[in-house]
Write a structure and sequence with these properties.
- Helices cover 44% and strands 19% of the residues.
- By secondary structure, the protein is an alpha+beta fold.
- It folds into 2 domains: 62-207 and 299-343, no CATH class; 219-294, no CATH class.
- The strands form 5 sheets. Strands 2-1-3 form a 3-stranded mixed β-sheet. A 3-stranded antiparallel β-sheet has the order 5-4-14. Strands 7-12-11 form a 3-stranded antiparallel β-sheet.
- Strand 4 (168-172) and strand 5 (175-176) form a beta hairpin.
- The relative contact order is 0.14.
- It holds the Pfam family SpoIID.
- Residues 66-172 form the Sporulation stage II protein D amidase enhancer LytB N-terminal domain.
- The chain crosses the membrane at residues 18-39.
């Protein structure tokens, strides 16, 4: 106040006319700053609200998903992608801990593909497809069309399970694993080397006794005309001869079988005939071959119905994933994010 009053008295005393143009110039210089300030602040606020969610490292990981039906590549934020996979791959009616285990498997599966530079053999460069070739993904709009008036409660339940495991991945020796999963076991999971012919230390056969109790289609039966059976396998059956099982895997599935003098792996039979699993036996009935299977899927990694059975017994998602994936640890995407973002 004292300085201001002293300055005012001096102006009154001397009152030089040249001060007026100086004040005019200063006014012209200040007005743009005053006008622009609120716009700058507004722009900063707008930019901050438009920023996607960031990790603790300050980076955001997106997934480039090849949308098969649309023939386009869509960029989806990681956690949104995981939610869309869990919603597509596991019933929302499953126990919360099973949904968490599925979220962890889904996030790990795609993280590993990203770290490898993306999936190979796609029509366009992307990290992963939205089909069973990798893991199924559906957007919220697609889920609304599928679930209709059940969308809200199902999506909320799944989003909560995904949020509870945010950023978590399964690692083996510090790297994200191939977190494979399938629907239903035959009471055991399969060694990776017995189905994919690749020995993976964390994908070893383990007991999965819960499936028979909780899976609605643990046993399944299909009837195939003999002519179709012969055509699909490229063989000709002799009267009364339908084949012999030569060897079974530690997962109690068929490893090799001899039919009409030819040797097939269990996987070859399953894929050629479109069977639900490689644990099967068959019998001839009239002009057809009747085949009964146990379980559903390749059998490697986590059984989804087994996971739900474990959850019903009170097991946590951590206990579930470490049962099905041997010797793994639960880590975070943040620890491997810098290398992943660099590759993006």
């Amino acid at each position: 106040m004292s300085n201001h009053c002293r300055g005012g008295s001096q102006l009154k005393k001397y009152n030089p006319l040249w001060i007026i143009p100086i004040l005019y110039v200063l006014t012209l210089l200040l007005i743009p700053a005053v006008v622009l300030l609120p716009f700058s602040k507004h722009q900063e606020e707008k930019q901050s609200t438009e920023q996607p969610k960031q990790t603790q490292e300050g980076e955001t990981l997106t997934v480039e998903v090849y949308r098969d039906q649309l023939d386009t590549v869509e960029q989806i934020e990681l956690e949104s992608y995981v939610s869309g996979v869990v919603a597509s791959e596991m019933p929302a009616s499953f126990e919360e801990e099973a949904l968490k285990a599925q979220a962890l498997a889904a996030r790990t599966y795609v993280t590993r593909l990203i770290s490898a530079g993306g999936a190979e053999g796609l029509p366009q460069k992307a990290d992963i497809t939205d089909t069973t070739a990798h893991q199924v993904y559906k957007s919220d709009q697609e889920l609304k069309e599928l679930w209709k008036d059940e969308f809200d409660w199902k999506k909320e339940k799944i989003d909560q399970a995904v949020a509870a495991t945010k950023g978590e991945v399964l690692t083996y020796e510090g790297k994200p694993i191939t977190a494979s999963f399938f629907s239903t076991s035959n009471g055991w999971t399969e060694n990776a080397k017995d189905y994919w012919e690749e020995d993976i230390p964390y994908l070893q056969s383990v007991e999965s006794s819960w499936d028979e109790e909780v899976a609605p289609e643990f046993l399944s039966e299909v009837s195939i005309p003999i002519t179709e059976f012969e055509e699909k396998l490229g063989i000709t059956l002799s009267d009364g001869e339908i084949g012999t099982v030569m060897e079974r895997t530690p997962g109690h599935r068929i490893k090799t079988v001899s039919i009409a003098g030819q040797s097939f792996t269990g996987r070859e039979i399953r894929e050629k005939l479109g069977l639900r699993s490689t644990d099967f036996h068959w019998a001839q009935k009239g002009d057809s071959i009747v085949i009964q299977t146990k379980g559903f899927g390749h059998g490697v990694g986590m059984s989804q119905y087994g996971a739900n059975g474990m959850a019903k017994e009170g097991k946590s998602y951590g206990e579930i994933v470490t049962h099905y994936f041997k010797g793994v640890e639960i880590g975070t995407v943040d620890k491997i994010l810098p290398s992943l973002v660099a590759q993006k």
